[in-house]
Amino acid sequence: MIDGLRVPSNLDADNFLSGLQYKAQPGDIFIATYPKSGTTWMEVIVYSLLNNGKPFDADIGDYLMRTPHLEKVGGYTVSTMVRP
Questions:
Q1: Alpha helix segments (H runs only) across the chain
Q2: What are the pLDDT tens digits along the chain (84 aa)?
Q3: Domain boundaries in the chain?
Q4: Which of 16, 32, 52, 80 is surrounded by the most beta carbons within 10 Å?
């Protein structure tokens, strides 16, 4: 539990709380899906659309850097990312 919210035990409390405080910036893209309904698939589709159809498995490191989970990495990390 973090601030009364039930969250997975592997989430860092500071990152989670800073993610809640994050204010969206122009150019941000949020992917929101229901649990277990194809989140990774949707991330791959959006990644491919933004990268001229380049599949993510051609550069897994780039894919992971461009598709962070706000609740895991925190607001500061997301605020310093290069926008699409």
A1: 13-21, 39-50, 60-66, 70-79
A2: 888 888 888 889 999 999 999 999 998 999 999 989 999 899 889 988 988 887 777 677 777 788 888 999 999 999 998 887
A3: 13-79
A4: 16
